[in-house]
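Per your request, structure below.
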């Protein structure tokens, strides 16, 4: 019998660590780059005094007293040795680390395609954009000690009746929400009830369930001013206010019953840092006479602010903190010819990560553990969960968009003019497993 899947104790150490094409209306959006018990005493039995020859074979008060002492000694022995040597488990359910496992073949293929879902952003619609191989669609994530059920859209929507979700972060969260909307639309297509001019912030409503899903664009999680076009080309340095949480999400926080929040990728960009209303330094701004502050400690400080806000808020949503999303660029980066040409998953331990992974991931895990320790046994501690997608994602170099970010012209695959996207994921693709995990963590 399979063990019952549960997310692991968030304070415990975390190991370091899926056709047919049809043109469908893309999900409009920008292409921006870049969560002792005591044993009961034995029941007493009354002792009758027996006369000699009534079955005991012996008689007299001395014998009776000796027998009484023997019975008492036996009773004490049973009581003493009935105590457990260690506190028993509170729950009889065996725990399973959902994030420790392997990718196994899945002949049935993906839960949806661009033929059945019209909510896929053009930049992640690898099928529509001409990706010829389909092998990346035929894998599923399997934890070592249990089974991870496939996303059940009807069950999820039924459980989330009259609820509201907010996914807060950058384009990786937008990538995930495309997968979520496609999975849910198998049961009911949502109504697009809001979007801003750039389609960065959006809201969908599933009318039969009165269920709302919101995408909240906040790439730094703290207040920022960004001067970039949809291709990541900047006209000025980003202005980042390290001591002010981004009001775009913090002012909406109380509207959500469930939150998925993540960040990190944008901290690698050129930025000027502000604190207390003044400039205190920058990251990689060579032409300015400002102290170089790097990005590591600034990301750490941001997470500390985010977790403090969650812990001190009177509103108690379930919060899934999603961990760092790995990329698989080879022979360069996105801006200088990097590619990702793998066509099959890595095996466990085959991918060791890159330098940035080894910086950002430990920061996230350390700050999450500190946040859980600070929360202690409060309700917020029960509601804050680690959605650790790093390990399973790091094994899928074949699932990225690669050169199929835009409609692919045959023969241009190796041309230097074709930009590869080895950070975002094809939809459908490995990112669907993230939402399988979300459902398991929230409902089971």
């Amino acid at each position: 019998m399979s063990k019952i899947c549960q997310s692991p104790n968030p304070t415990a150490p975390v190991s370091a660590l899926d056709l047919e094409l049809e043109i469908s209306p893309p999900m409009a959006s920008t292409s921006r780059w870049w969560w002792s018990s005591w044993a009961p005493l034995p029941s007493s039995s009354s002792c009758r005094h027996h006369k000699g020859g009534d079955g005991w074979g012996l008689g007299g008060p001395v014998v009776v007293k000796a027998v009484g002492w023997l019975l008492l000694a036996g009773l004490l022995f049973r009581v003493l040795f009935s105590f457990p040597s260690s506190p028993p488990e509170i729950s009889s359910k065996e725990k399973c680390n959902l994030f420790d496992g392997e990718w196994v073949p899945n002949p049935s293929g993906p839960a949806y395609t661009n033929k059945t879902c019209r909510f896929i952003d053009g930049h992640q619609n690898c099928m529509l954009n001409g990706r010829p191989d389909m092998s990346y669609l035929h894998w599923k994530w399997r934890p070592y000690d249990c089974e991870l059920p496939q996303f059940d859209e009807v069950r999820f929507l039924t459980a989330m009746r009259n609820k509201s979700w907010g996914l807060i972060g950058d384009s990786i969260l937008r990538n995930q929400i495309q997968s979520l909307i496609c999975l849910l639309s198998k049961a009911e297509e949502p109504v697009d009830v809001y979007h801003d001019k750039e389609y960065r912030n959006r809201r969908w409503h599933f009318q039969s369930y009165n269920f709302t899903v919101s995408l909240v664009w906040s790439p730094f999680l703290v207040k920022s001013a960004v001067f970039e076009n949809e291709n990541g080309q900047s006209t000025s340095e980003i202005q980042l206010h390290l001591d002010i949480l981004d009001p775009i999400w913090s002012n909406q926080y109380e509207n959500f019953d469930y939150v998925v929040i993540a960040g990190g990728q944008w901290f690698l960009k050129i930025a000027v840092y502000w604190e207390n209303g003044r400039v205190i330094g920058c990251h990689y701004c060579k032409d300015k006479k400002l102290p170089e502050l790097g990005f590591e400690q600034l990301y750490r400080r941001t997470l500390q602010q985010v977790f403090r806000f969650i812990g001190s808020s009177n509103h108690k949503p379930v919060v899934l903190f999603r961990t760092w999303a790995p990329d698989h660029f080879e022979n360069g980066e996105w801006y200088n010819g990097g590619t990702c040409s793998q066509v099959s998953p890595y095996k466990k331990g085959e991918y060791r990560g890159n330098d940035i992974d080894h910086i950002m991931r430990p920061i996230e895990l350390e700050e999450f553990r500190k946040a859980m320790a600070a929360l202690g046994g409060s309700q917020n501690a029960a509601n804050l969960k680690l959605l650790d997608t790093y390990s399973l994602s790091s094994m899928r170099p074949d699932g990225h968009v690669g050169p199929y970010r835009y409609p692919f012209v045959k023969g241009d695959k190796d041309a230097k003019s074709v930009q590869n996207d080895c950070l975002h994921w094809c939809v459908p693709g490995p990112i669907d497993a993230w939402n399988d995990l979300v459902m398991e963590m929230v409902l089971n």
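Residues 1-93 have pLDDT under 50 and may be disordered.

Regards,
D.
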